[in-house]
Design goal:
The structure holds 2 protein chains of 2 kinds.
Chain A lengths: L29 H5 L2 E2 L1 H6 L4 E3 L2 E5 L2 H12 L7 E5 L6 H9 L25 H9 L3 H8 L11 H14 L2 H4 E3 L1 E8 L4 E6 L10 E5 L1 E4 L6 E2 L2 H10 L5 E3 L5 H9 L3 E5 L3 H17 L4 E6 L7 E2 L2 E2 L18 E2 L2 E2 L8 H4 L1 H7 L3 H11 L8 H13 L2 E5 L1 E8 L2 E8 L2 E7 L1 E4 L3 E2 L6 H9 L27 E4 L15 H17 L8 H13 L4
Chain B lengths: L5 H6 L3 E12 L2 E5 L4 H16 L4 H14 L7 E6 L3 E7 L2 E5 L2 E4 L7 E6 L5 E5 L16 E10 L3 H22 L27 H5 L17 H8 L19 H8 L22 E6 L5 E2 L21 E4 L5 E4 L4 E3 L4 E4 L6 H4 L4 E4 L12 E6 L2 E6 L6 E4 L7 E2 L5 E4 L4 E4 L2 E6 L7
Parallel strand pairs in B: 15-16
Antiparallel strand pairs in B: 1-2, 1-9, 2-3, 3-4, 4-7, 5-6, 5-8, 8-9, 10-11, 10-12, 13-14, 13-23, 15-17, 17-18, 18-21, 19-20, 19-22, 22-23
Helix pairs in contact in B: 2-3
Classes of the chains: A alpha/beta, B alpha+beta.
């Protein structure tokens, strides 16, 4: 083959160039993909430009936000950190998921007053700031009397987002944000890591950009939802997206239609989302006079005190019943719990207990405190009772074997204890939020295959007490992870606001020891809190 | 006979010579590749086909091969490609191939990269040979009218002798065809009036027809040294030989007893009666859009956060825009609760069924039954554009009103304008309200 430079015809780039486009340079090579440790030369030889940033966080959701917030307060300038994300603002995914699962901005989320991702001190809490803002004592009474005399106080979604926005402006989050898709993180020969980012098309000269950094933080959140296999099958086979919907996608048309035409809806699942969907259906009945019949399908029917293994009498490894101090209330199929974890995981005896456990024992405790549950709320309970009394709310226990279109309706074959029962409804709302495995996430799978990461007893990423990913150290560099992908570690409740803050605090502590940031001592803490209050940059 | 225009060239005679390369003649493009390995030859052939399909422009040929050689090809087997251009014949040579045009020899072996030339019309004889292969002899009886064959060289003879030989070939073939063609004797009135079929008797007759048949002739005759023979009679003869007419299909007759037929008839269900084409609804719309695949190979809008089928986060895979079949984009819920799935465009109005676009199957009707007399016959239409649903007002008398969520007021669309509908948009026509809903998870 002759030298292209000696060409007598210079190839042009005008639109009439009709050959299929050639891959532009600056892409990952096979050699790179197969190498666990990358040298600077290897990356440079592939034509990928290298950017030096000491700390990068991948994900750009609330986990990344809380971590950089901590580090900013600990005195790290924005030039030292980058957030690599496809999101425009940290609460984008969170807001989307809450909105479609019937928690729009004016509704209250399921998180307590002190978990403030925008305020590392948790003071003043959401209840206090809401009371001040609205000049009312109701929120204060609520936090004072909860959970005995009133329901748990929970902040409004809109209030949370507004405060996140304020804090993100204060710490100059946008200066640190780099848009793009992170393809891979690999250890660097000689210490540190390479993070390969695919910027949006046209944003950079090359297809990939490499970030060379000493510390990498991964907070990519849930790998995604996993719609039920029968839902996926129904959609692909029948090309019908409107009769069967998942609670985590926009499905407003179902409610529109229900208000206008008396119909029957099958709701599947027994978690917080199912209770939100039911509440929406019942609210529409009350407000707009919808004549909706609700059939509620439980897989496991909870009829009394229970824990993560199920009802009192259900089988448990090693036998036995629920432990007196580790059980929750339940009735009518539901398991009730104020938050998705028992409150003591954030700062009580459960936190202390899990920190000392390893292997199977830890997995066992996780199982015991886990399980699907939902908070008990007064108005919702009243509506449910009304439905049972008036006969428009019915419960079925079983699993769906098959779903087929039947005219404009859906024919479900439900396997119950009494055999397979046909159930014809107009709409199916699936509220069983199955989570995908972490290996579904490309970045995490690569870390498991090539980065030295491993799985914990629960099957997620194995992190140490300081949220360092075990087995991924590279020279003086450290790889941290927080959020839902690390569930099952020494700290439970990682996928909550407060859990993310606990993780961020541990990571900050580790980084302070390594000299990356200053320690937040009493003086700095006080000073920084006043700056937070005043809204001035840290 | 010399080729004086691009059209002449595409009708020229091509004589293949033996060898272990691959010769292709696709329309006006002629390509000789020094390899008989199908895999090696394939990219060259594909490009030649593309150029031929685009009309066979020499410049396109040269640019394409140059780009191909400078980017993707590792080891070139050596090849030569020829295609006509408005001002001359484009010749592209790479590797050890020799092209001789009117006695002038051009070799790719002398050059580091490729060689490309534009040889101005008229072009006489052309011969191309791979290294170690001889140019076919002057009297060769082989010829290639189109297709891909094994060959080591080929020649386009420009001399009269060759042309006359072709005459005989052509006339022998064509004469019976003309006779079989019809009973009007001369083959006229069969769609090729412009190119009278030459017969052996026609040769000495000066026929101006071919010149007249080529509408644009830049008259290069002034400068061009003509070959000794009068060119005019040769031109039609050397024209692209016509393929032999397909023989009449022999359909053997089979007689069946009527009684048997009737028995068979019982097995058939009567076909449904369809009054108009609008009643025929395609089960699966096949319109193609640009979208991305999720990790589990489900096709999605490039703007969504989560896959619409399996729910996986779309960040799991680097988005690559590809064509795919568009899934339904959402639904329209009328205020009486009727639901219309948006996989086809709709015409909205008092009586949209009368519109011919419904009859042609282009649109589906969405009747708006309203007592208010404020709905036009065809009031507005809903179209799918990429991944968007667009509402277009049909210059309606009483207007189409739109309420976008998070905005305070209903807004009347200016007549004839269009609007992209977002999740939750409400549309008011007369006294009826429609709501647009989509499951697509756009984040904002």
């Amino acid at each position: 083959m002759s030298e292209p430079a000696a060409a007598s015809v210079v190839p042009t780039t005008d639109p009439s160039t009709y050959l299929p486009s050639q891959p532009i340079s600056g892409d990952l090579t096979d050699q790179m993909l197969q190498t666990d440790f990358w040298t600077d030369e290897l990356v440079a030889a592939a034509g990928i430009p290298i950017v030096d940033i000491p700390f990068v966080t991948i994900g750009g959701g609330i986990g990344s936000f809380v971590t950089v917030d901590y580090l900013r307060i600990a005195g790290v300038p924005t030039s030292q950190m980058r957030v690599l994300s496809t999101l425009d603002f940290p609460w984008q995914t969170y807001e989307y998921l809450t909105r479609v699962s019937q928690v729009p901005r004016p509704e209250r989320i399921r998180s307590d007053s002190a978990s403030r991702p925008d305020n590392i001190w948790g003071f003043p809490s959401y209840a206090v700031s809401e009371a001040i803002q609205k000049k009312t004592l109701a929120p204060l009474w609520s936090v004072f009397a909860e959970p005995i005399f009133t329901d748990y106080y929970t902040p409004k979604a809109g209030h949370v987002f507004e405060n996140l926005e304020r804090e993100s402006n204060r710490i100059a989050y946008n200066e640190m944000l780099v848009k793009g898709l992170v393809r891979i993180v690999r250890r660097r020969y000689g210490g540190g890591y390479f993070t390969i980012l695919t910027p949006p098309e046209g944003a950079s000269a090359t297809k990939r950009v490499a970030f060379r950094s000493q510390y990498v933080h991964i907070a990519v959140g849930y790998p995604g939802l996993k719609f039920l296999p029968e839902l996926q099958r129904y959609r692909t086979e029948n090309n019908d997206y409107r009769h069967i919907v998942n609670a985590y996608e926009a499905h407003e048309h179902v409610y529109e239609r229900l208000v206008q035409t008396p119909s029957t809806v099958l709701v599947r699942g027994g978690g917080i989302v199912a209770s939100r969907i039911l509440q929406r259906l019942m609210d529409d009945r009350e407000k707009y006079g919808a004549q909706t019949n609700i059939v509620h399908l439980f897989r496991t029917y909870i009829n009394g005190t229970n824990d993560g293994y199920g009802n009192e009498g259900d089988a448990r490894p090693g036998g036995g019943r629920t432990r007196t101090f580790m059980r929750r209330r339940g009735e009518n199929g539901w398991a009730y719990q104020g938050f998705n974890y028992p409150k003591s995981v954030w700062g009580g005896q459960l936190k202390a207990q899990v920190r000392k456990l390893d292997g199977e024992q830890r997995a066992e405790l996780y199982k015991r405190m886990g399980g699907t549950n939902t908070p008990w709320r007064k108005s919702w309970q009243r509506q449910m009772n009304q439905g049972r009394r008036e006969g428009w709310y019915n419960v079925v226990v079983g699993t769906v074997e098959d779903m087929q279109p039947s005219g404009e309706r859906i024919l479900n074959q439900v396997r119950t204890a009494q055999g397979v029962v046909p159930l014809e409804v107009d709409f199916v709302i699936d509220c069983t939020g199955l989570e995908a495995d972490i290996a579904e996430h490309r970045l995490l799978k690569d870390l498991l295959d090539h980065g030295g990461a491993s799985r914990n007893p629960v099957g997620r990423l194995n992190v140490d007490r300081n949220f360092e990913l075990i087995g991924t150290a590279s020279g003086s560099g450290t790889l941290y992870a927080s959020g839902a992908t690390t569930l099952g570690g020494y700290f439970p409740g990682v996928d909550t606001f407060l859990g993310l803050q606990v993780a961020a605090q541990e990571i900050y502590g580790d980084l302070a020891k390594r000299g990356f940031c200053k320690r937040i001592g009493p003086v700095r803490s006080t000073l920084q809190w006043w700056k937070w209050l005043a809204g001035s940059a840290p | 006979m010399a080729a004086t225009t691009a059209e002449d060239w595409s009708r020229a005679l091509v004589v293949p010579g033996a060898g272990d390369g691959t010769l292709a003649r696709i329309g006006p493009v002629t390509l000789l590749v020094g390899s008989s390995d199908a895999e090696v030859v394939k990219p060259y052939l594909e490009h030649a086909e593309m150029v031929a399909a685009n009309g066979g422009q020499g410049r396109q040929l040269v640019r394409g091969y140059a780009l191909m050689l400078s980017t993707s090809v590792e080891q070139s087997p050596g090849f030569a490609a020829l295609a006509p251009h408005t001002t001359g014949l484009a010749v592209f040579i790479d590797g050890d191939v020799t092209v001789t045009v009117d006695g002038e020899e051009i070799s790719g072996a002398d050059s580091l990269a490729w060689v490309e030339r534009l040889i101005p019309w008229p072009v006489g004889s052309v011969s191309v040979a791979l290294a170690g292969n001889a140019v076919p002899a002057a009297g060769s009886s082989y010829r290639l009218d189109g297709g891909v064959v094994p060959a080591g060289s080929f020649a386009v003879p420009g001399d009269l002798a060759a042309a006359q030989e072709v005459d005989q070939h052509v006339s022998q073939e064509v004469a019976p065809m003309a006779a079989a063609d019809g009973h009007d004797g001369h083959g006229h009135g069969h769609g090729h009036d412009d190119t009278p079929v030459p017969t052996a008797e026609d040769i000495p007759v000066v026929a101006p027809a071919p010149v007249a048949s080529t509408p644009v002739v830049p008259a290069p005759v002034v400068a061009a040294p003509e070959p000794p023979a009068p060119p005019a009679p040769a031109a039609p003869v050397a024209g692209r030989p016509l393929p032999p007419p397909p023989a009449d299909e022999q359909v053997s007759f089979q007689s069946v007893l009527i009684g048997d037929v009737e028995e068979d008839m019982d097995d058939f269900e009567p076909l449904p009666i369809v009054d108009s084409a609008a009643q025929v609804v395609k089960d699966s719309p096949q319109e193609q859009v640009r979208g991305v695949y999720c990790k589990n190979r489900h096709f999605n809008d490039p703007r969504v956060l989560f896959c619409g089928i399996c729910g996986i986060n779309m960040v799991q895979q680097t988005p690559v825009l590809v064509n795919g079949v568009r899934p339904p984009l959402g639904v329209i819920v009328l205020d009486d609760g009727s639901v219309f799935q948006l996989d086809n465009p709709y015409l909205l109005g008092r009586d949209p069924s009368a519109d011919e676009r419904i009859a042609s199957g282009e649109f589906r009707p969405l009747p708006i039954i309203d007592q208010s007399n404020q709905v036009s016959r065809v009031h507005a239409r809903l179209e799918m554009r990429g991944w968007d649903v667009v509402l277009i007002d049909n210059n309606s008398t009483n207007g189409t009103f739109v309420h976008v969520p998070k905005t305070p007021d209903w807004v009347r669309m200016p007549p004839g304008t269009e609007q992209v509908l977002v999740q939750g948009t409400r549309v008011r026509i007369g006294h009826r309200t429609l709501a647009f809903n989509t499951h697509a998870g756009a984040s904002s």
